[in-house]
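chain below, 253 aa
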Amino acid sequence: FEHNLHSLRIVEHLERRYPGFRGLNLTWEVREGIAKHSTEHDRPDVMKEYEPKKAPCLEAQIVDMADEIAYNNHDIDDGLASEMLDVEQLNNVELWQKNYDNIKKTFPKNDFKIHKSQTIIQIINQQVTDLAAQILKEVEKRKASSAEDIRDIGEPIACFSHEMNKKNTELKKFLIRNLYKHHRVIRMADKAKRILQALFKVYSVEPELLPPHVYATIEDTGKERLICDYIAGMTDRFALDEYKKLFDPYERV
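prediction:
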């Protein structure tokens, strides 16, 4: 499953909002940004129609970086709330430690909840400020004066400074080691994998178990593609409920 390609499939084919065509009425640049959205965990193969040798527009590059800033800091918050991370561990990460110490000195009378929230806010602010400054430097260095100049560079120029990139890399390595590979996370991921595999298998064997409005398109779409689209559109809660309905004899269908 490649989430960028599926996102494109949603906006170009699956959504039904207009009488004359399928998909949403999005600009080419927005769809290109979706096709080229990348992180360290996914490097999509870009379709030829989206000019894979060119960089995405600057707006799309900024969205990529904003995504990384948001989920890294949100994961710190989630990790602390779930007690899979603790402050003692985080104090080994420079980006957290310096900001946390500064917040405690600035607001000594407040409790940990405030200190935590303000530390995360300060980290986000520093990263956004650094990103904006670095983009301006890159634009000047590359002598880019148009949107096409940005794309012709062939690589993203929306990036952190060397110093901030080093700090951010340390944070990401910490999160991988202490949160994403935490035994509770691994167990939940494995459980989710088994649920999705079971749903795909049962729909493949008995496609009539699909909702009537979904099953009605099976000849046009193809069985496997249809099942993938249906499962990919599920929320976590919906997938769990569907699993219960199909496999728990005491669950009402």
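DSSP finds 13 helices and no strands in the chain. The chain has three domains: 1-53, 57-181, 185-247.
thats it, cya
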